[in-house]
Amino acid sequence: MFNFFKKLISPFSRIKSVFGQKIRSLFSHPIDEKSLNQLEQLFYEADLGAKNAADLVETLKVHAKKNSDPDSFLAATKQELLKAFAGQPLPNKENSSPHVVLVIGTNGSGKTTTLAKLAHHYRSLNKTVLIAAADTFRAAALEQLETWATRTGAELVKSKSGSDPSAVVFDALSSAKAKGIDITLIDTAGRLQNKTDLMQELAKIRRTCEKQIPGAPHETLLILDATLGQNALDAARAFHQLTPVTGIVLTKLDGSAKGGVAFAIQKELKIPILWVGLGEGQEDLVPFDAETYVNALLGLS
Fold first, then answer.
1. Fold classification of 99-289 (topology level)
2. Which of 41, 44, 109, 292 is the Cys-Cys partner for 53 at CB 3.0 to 4.6 Å?
């Protein structure tokens, strides 16, 4: 268990080495108006967003007037950042069988790979897993899932390229119910938020889930590429308007020199960030931890 949480530090290492160094340098002397302006610029560069950066610094100015000691100010900054993650709604419990998880996201976000990691996670808990290959537009996606299903011991329901994705979902859920499968993971095509027809297809998949299993999908996980910064936030807004997203997985956060988008997403949308993607391996998916994230952002140990 200790090694598992120790690994959680890994995705934030680059944030800490780049942004954290700048923060620590800024806080090496008493806080004044100049350093507060610099801090706002740093927050903006870290992808917290212009309004979030300005609002955060405005709040911190009150503390600076009372105590300009760098360590005290840094502690206050940490607490203000953590407030965005307070009171996150909990993800849906796996009370139904099958528990249906709809996995959505834009092209290139790491959606299919993340789904495979989720399959590995559930299999490691001795749960039976079925994968619905509803991304019928991209042949490579099916090939990926076939490989991962074999590795993880998950079942796979697929169809030929170009088939109706909703039909694949219907067949997958029928099979899951008949076999008493614990977890059903539904892969979908990478959706571009400005493509109305594709977004409508996603809505059709949701309707199919509900008809087959009342209350399904029980979770809708949105996969976001952290390196896209504010564009990732734009994608989150668009998806959340179309379908209620219950949780977010941030991929490639270890490859981002910014990383503040996690704060921006939480501040605006209040959707819990559940997982962080670290790499391509089966085990390279770990739970998101707000305090570890904020410590890394501020260059704290």
1. Rossmann fold (3.40.50)
2. 44
